[in-house]
Amino acid sequence: MLNPIYLDYHSTTPVDRRLLDVIYDSMIDNFGNPSSIDHLWGDRTLNVIKKAKQQIADLINCQAQEIIFTSGATESINTVIQGLTPPHHFIISPLEHKAVIDTCQAMVKRGLGKITWLKVDKKGRIDLEYLEKICTQGASLLCVMAANNEIGNIYPIQEIGKIAQTYHIPFLCDGSQAVGKIPLNFQDWGITFLTISGHKLYAPKGIGALIVKQGYHLQPLIYGGGHQNGLRSGTLNVSGIVALGEACYLRQLEMVEDERAIALKRNHLQSILQSQIPSLIINGDIHNRLAGNLHISIPHVPNSAMIARIRDKIAISTGSACTTQTLAPSHVLRAINLEDELIESALRIGIGKFTTHEEIEKSATILIDAVNQILSLFAI
């Protein structure tokens, strides 16, 4: 196919073309350094940074001064976990992004703390009673993502935040997959630290934000100049920041309608696949998942064989884009005790704002044909 279909929106999203004007302006016209306080170029750029902060704040209900710009969620997560004063006791969901798990484990290896793992069921749902029981013992940080990047589960962040507040435990919520797709309320939900990644909500790659509740202090990872309240030094990525702000503004306007339409497309694709592939299994919590997420396993159909047949026609994945360079099975699917055969046949489909109905229909045909080809080889 000359124009392969893109269904990997959990990995990254295309940039919304409506952002190009603000990106262009920040590069060509208002290109000043916002830290240059001695002339109008700096003033103008500082004003567009302030506007972007307010656009982000309006989407997630935080204070503009609580926003720190980073390169993305991975840096934001590292800033929190490495910026806390040791010793550490981390309470972590085993379904967290590798940026959370690997960073916490690195701190433990340095002798700076320990990890307590939360319990999850086969649908990837968190045992909230166990979470509260563990929190009664105290901890330095609770880490639970708002939505999972593989199986798409949406977690009860408001309830989890209330538990964290009750036991005075700082709460790090990875909002990478959730911000701009589902409502999040930083101010009222007991969240202490929230991460945002621009390229998950139709902004460019390389820009993100960390929201730090007022009154909390972190040691910086990057020194030099004392920018952003001393937490993250370095000249600001102005074009990325204004694009992130504009993307958040557009998500606030269009999120509800867009996600409703995306869910209809996902459900249509799911229905077609189920009707033609009776053995198909849907992984995760189908009652609480992202609108664009369809995570499936097809017994007797290895995902490697599927990808080999469709990779030039449809972009889907066998796991997280952040760990696809490794051959190890998904830690998420391992944590929910998915059988080995189902892990080896797992496929993640991500549908987004720009996915068309025609692409859904074509994708269904391509996927079904590939499954039938593979099953015929094994005479199943």
Automatic annotation (TrEMBL):
CC cofactor: pyridoxal 5'-phosphate
SUPFAM superfamilies, per database record: PLP-dependent transferases
Protein keywords: Iron, Iron-sulfur, Metal-binding, Pyridoxal phosphate, Transferase
Catalytic activity: (sulfur carrier)-H + L-cysteine = (sulfur carrier)-SH + L-alanine
Domain Aminotransferase class V residue range list: 5-361
Membership in a protein family: Belongs to the class-V pyridoxal-phosphate-dependent aminotransferase family. NifS/IscS subfamily.
Signal sequence coordinates: none
Name of the protein described by the UniProt record: Cysteine desulfurase
InterPro entries, A to Z: Aminotrans_V_dom (IPR000192), Cysteine_dSase (IPR016454), PyrdxlP-dep_Trfase (IPR015424), PyrdxlP-dep_Trfase_major (IPR015421), PyrdxlP-dep_Trfase_small (IPR015422)
PANTHER family: CYSTEINE DESULFURASE (PTHR11601:SF34), CYSTEINE DESULFURYLASE FAMILY MEMBER (PTHR11601)
Keyword Transmembrane helix: no
